[in-house]
Amino acid sequence: MDEDALAEELRQSIGELVRAVRGVDTMPPGESAILGFLARGGPLTTAELAQRRGVTHQSAAKSVKELTGGGLVRAEPHPSDGRKHLLHITDAGLARLQGERAQRAHVVNAAIRDMFDAEERERLRDCIGLLSRLASHLTEK
């Protein structure tokens, strides 16, 4: 298999895995992405969230409105720009995000246990480091 074919096969496999795991989510991907950004990066504006997600401001604002209405995100005035708001994840939002992540992990763990023997699980564990290094390299560019 040539290197381009390897890269394409890896891209397809990872995409299929991500779509399969997201199938157990109970909230829209945009909303869980926003909660994830707020949990990892602290308070952000709607514009910053839109930029990080690669979506329009309007799309991010719609998700923020749903999350705020559900008590998962709270807004406070921006300290240096009165036209903006800083968005914070609430305790309820963090609990919901952790629940989504736990559900995904549970589904993946169950599939790993069902499909792979001990040796295959060890090989899979070894691949995690390689995939993490690849992801780091790609995000540095």
TrEMBL record:
Gene3D superfamilies reported in the protein's UniProt record: Winged helix-like DNA-binding domain superfamily/Winged helix DNA-binding domain (1.10.10.10)
Domain HTH marR-type residue range list: 3-133
Name the UniProt record assigns to this protein: MarR family transcriptional regulator
One Pfam short name: MarR_2
Superkingdom field: Bacteria
Recorded coiled-coil stretches: none
InterPro entries: HTH-type_Bedaq_tolerance, HTH_MarR-typ, WH-like_DNA-bd_sf, WH_DNA-bd_sf
PANTHER family: CONSERVED PROTEIN, HTH-TYPE TRANSCRIPTIONAL REGULATOR RV0880
